[in-house]
Amino acid sequence: MPLKGQKIGCLGGGAMGEALVTGLLREGLVAPADLYVSDINQERLEYLNKKLGVNITADNTAAIKAADIVILAVKPQVIIPLLKEIAPAARMSQTFISIAAGITIEQLQSCFESPIPVVRVIPNTPCLLGEGASAISAGKYACEENIKKAVAIFAAAGKVAAVPETLLDCVTGLSGSGPAYMYVIMEGFIDGAVRLGLPRDTARVLVAQTMLGAAKMVLETGEHPGKLKDMVTTPGGTTMAGLFALEEGSVRALMMKAVAAAAERSREMSIIK
Ligand SMILES: NC(=O)c1ccc[n+]([C@@H]2O[C@H](COP(=O)([O-])OP(=O)(O)OC[C@H]3O[C@@H](n4cnc5c(N)ncnc54)[C@H](OP(=O)(O)O)[C@@H]3O)[C@@H](O)[C@H]2O)c1
Fold it and tell me: What are the pLDDT digits (tens) for 23-75?
């Protein structure tokens, strides 16, 4: 129970901050009284207090002082000035977790005056529903205990994998941007069915459930997707005819190019900052 007795501060109570705090409460990992959310938007704070019963404050430093673990859930352009503002209140016994896209562990660590444990996470939007895919990387001052705490927080919002920071651009291009790829794939299949006369709403539900079911088959059986595909492909049958059409369009090469293009863009944006 890495989060037992831990007080958690969340700086930024926007979409992601709310998703992570909601996950912790839903899983019963932290009590509302042990959660502190700070934000510059008073309306947002009042909404979170009313909905989730968490402590709220407009003072980031007050949230830091109260917390053992600090989640930095503000936009990337805000995070460095914010860290400089709160750095004097940071303690080496705390764990700082950043979800800001493109801000490196080195950039985060350099804002502090002492060696503060920092963990960087790339989550994705389905965290909002507890079905996120997050990858985490630890800074040089973070120990096993810090990492376990970060994993526990993101496991409450979906699945988590630990990777070296050098692979976080790849993760951004895979699961970070991934929901958009899946929406485009679903849209294509929906249009394909509508073209043949299926009502759009029926097609939408069937396609989304098919994607969900296939994802569960991969996760729950632990089988290679190729093997699962072979299991539903009768020689000379309908699925093979559909798969051949996809292969004629080089579907797998396109997907590999999409991950590479998004990863490269993530790397460029990180350098630009
Ligand atoms: N949303 C996603 O799917 C997603 C996915 C992966 C990673 N991320 C990362 O998650 C982080 C948060 O994204 P988000 O979508 O949750 O953003 P968001 O909804 O805009 O939430 C950020 C919140 O922080 C507040 N804020 C701004 N400056 C602040 C300050 N100095 N101190 C305290 N609070 C401040 C904002 O208030 P105002 O609105 O008034 O400015 C807003 O309420 C970003 O770094 C993003 O890169 C998001």
Answer: 999 999 999 999 999 999 999 999 999 999 999 999 999 999 999 999 999 99
Q: Write out pLDDT tens, residues 247-256.
A: 999 999 999 9
- In the chain, domain spans: 8-168, 176-272
In the structure, which protein residues have their CB atom closer than 6 angstroms to any atom of ligand 1?
A: 11-17, 38-41, 44, 60, 73-76, 78, 82, 99-101, 123-125
How far apart CA 185 and CA 199 sit, in angstroms, is 18
Q: Under CATH, which number does the domain 8-168 receive? A: 3.40.50.720
Q: Which CATH class is domain 176-272?
A: mainly alpha
For residue 214, give both structure tokens: 């296939």
Q: In the sheet that 69-72 helps form, which strands lie side by side, from edge to edge? A: 55-57, 35-38, 8-11, 69-72, 95-98, 118-122, 132-138, 158-162
- Out of 10, 16, 120, mutate this one to test ligand 1's pocket (max ligand atoms within 8 Å of CB): namely 16
Interval between CA 74 and ligand 1 midpoint (Å) = 4
